[in-house]
Design a protein that fits this description.
single chain, mainly alpha, two-stranded antiparallel ribbon, 4 strands, 6% strand
Amino acid sequence: MMRRLGLYVIVGVGAGPPRPFRLMNHSEAEHLLQSGFLDPFEIPAGAELVKDLADVVNSAVLSIRLALLKSGSYEEEDVPLVGSSAVPADAAAIARWGLQATARVWKLALLGGPCGGKTRSRSAIKSTVEKRDPEFQVFSTMEVATVLYHLGAMSGGTYETLVQDEYREYVIQSELLQLAFEGIWARGAAAAVAR
């Protein structure tokens, strides 16, 4: 790919301007857990949760990027990989995390379309539940699509240069990541409740 006056001139197979993918570092994983009301610094094995979260997200990002490369629509230099170089855990093992039962942890799913208020309602649900029964603690996973978009999947969520192979892998990884998020947050919730 060549650059000329800030505009991209397509040379060869590349389908458009470069599409960088970024890997999540541990600091970002800590922040993601904290934004889901789970502070890894306040619970036993918090560092393990941070590592597991970074691993699972990076596994998904790498799988989506690989699908894009295998599609033949992009060359390696068109989809640069930036960020941490930690090797993530096995994706199949990660998906099982969300299926494990965790004592004293209940899960509630908020469903609705885009901009339906799911994310915005998290704080209100947390304060209402914890006010009614102080023994309850509420934790919330983040929206998987938003996490993947911020790391480069699906052209940052714009779908500008839709490649079917990338989209197919994005859907698969989104489901696996949702299960993994539920498992990680459930483990963190169980540890928080136990202390």
